[in-house]
Amino acid sequence: MTGITDFAKRHGFIWQDGELVNWNDCKLHMLTHSLHYGGAVFEGLRSYNSKIFKLEQHTRRLRFSAELIGYSLPFTDDEINLACQEVLQANGVIDAYIRPVAWRGSKAMGIAHQDNPVMMAVAAWEWPSYYSPKKLLEGLRLRTSVWRRPSPGTAPVHSKVSGLYMICTMAKQEATDAGYDDALMLDYRGFIAESTGSNIFLFMEDGKLHTPLPDCFLDGITRQTAVELARVRGIEVVERHIAYEELTQAVEVFLTGTAVEITPIREIDGYTFTPGELSKTMIKAYDNAVRA
């Protein structure tokens, strides 16, 4: 796959609906229901030294996401886990990103989707660190987006469903077009929520690690891992609603997510932070955990 940037033109294998198919033969009809109505659910996983980190936990969340928006996956958790392993081996990748996805097919159109079959696929490809070593050392620059995470009463906020990521793509595009690395998203009440695809932690002047309460966005698996790793090391973690104005009290800030792993932030809207010992400790702890 070296040198090929168009994902539709890569070579290898993708698991689709129970069997491995050639990468280029995995296709989607333009009248696929989820393409029009944003009803696909997906996961993002990483493998390190051919071992997929927290595979079972990701698969359980995939099933939860599907059921939350009204459909069931056509394969068992064990079958999905095996598919992820098969795709990894078939493509000969060791340190990789893995993308399981489920969607409503093209049997019927219109808002209602009950008549459409549920289809599934799993792809895997080599993917090194999301950001360069220089960027990881310096930290990211963010600016706050005008788009906000919605209320639980208006969207299935705890499902990893494709439709909810539209505001994320718009927010990140606006930020990167303006020269930033990512966007900070507030929630519908104005509290700090997350970035466009990662959870956020703030090491405050009180010596505690604070992170927003995930009541209107995903409680990321990497977020949960970071909380566990911090507490094991005697770092007090506080999960609560965090006002935007509290950025003035933050000493270190970092993001967590499967793609970004643990990545420091050095600026948000002109507020500056210095990636220090706490960030280094968490990065090392996470790296040890995923490679254990």
What is the share of helical residues? 25-40%
The CA-CA distance between the termini, in Å, is 27 Å
- Please tally the β strands and state the result: 16
Q: How would you characterize the largest beta sheet?
A: 9 strands, mixed
Gist of the model:
This protein has about 290 residues and is of the alpha+beta class.
Explain the overall architecture.
The chain has 292 residues and is α+β, with helices and mostly antiparallel strands. It folds into two domains: 7-126, D-amino Acid Aminotransferase, Chain A, domain 1; 133-290, Alpha-Beta Barrel (D-amino Acid Aminotransferase, Chain A, domain 2), CATH 3.20.10.10. 26% of the residues lie in helices and 29% in strands. Strands 8, 9, 10, 11, 12, 13, 14, 15 and 16 form a nine-stranded mixed β-sheet that branches. Strands 1, 2, 3, 4, 5, 6 and 7 form a seven-stranded antiparallel β-sheet that branches. A hairpin with a 4-residue loop joins strand 11 and strand 12. Helix 2 crosses helix 3. The longest helix is centred in the N-terminal third of the chain and has 14 residues, at 55-68. The chain is globular. 38% of the residues are buried.
